[in-house]
Amino acid sequence: MSGFQAGDKVRIVSCEDDPRAAGRTGRIVDAVPPGPLTGGRWTVNGIGLFIGPVLCRTSELRPA
After folding, report:
1. What's the pLDDT tens digit per position in 19-35?
2. Which residues contact 4 (CB under 8 A, 6 or more apart)?
3. Which of 64, 33, 14, 2 is nearest to 43 (CA)?
């Protein structure tokens, strides 16, 4: 997996779940690595006023 942990600040380079999130930063919500429930994607929150939590693959994220 990657080295992401709950609370890590990340930059979203792309997001299949919500393309509006691309280019923004947010924080990882998940306390454990993503599994089958989220389709292997991380939950990222705190992206913007009109964008709720999104699910992003590891390849769509970079440390911020």
Report:
1. 999 999 999 999 999 99
2. 10, 28, 30, 33, 42, 58, 61
3. 33
DSSP run (H or E) holding 39: none
Which pairs from 32-37 meet CB under 8 Å and 24+ separation?
33/1, 33/4
- Sort strands 42-45 and 54-56 into parallel, antiparallel or unpaired: antiparallel
**Residue 2 pLDDT class (50, 70, 90 cuts):** low
pTM beyond cutoff 0.85: yes
3 burial (CB, 10 Å; 0-12 / 13-18 / 19+) is: exposed
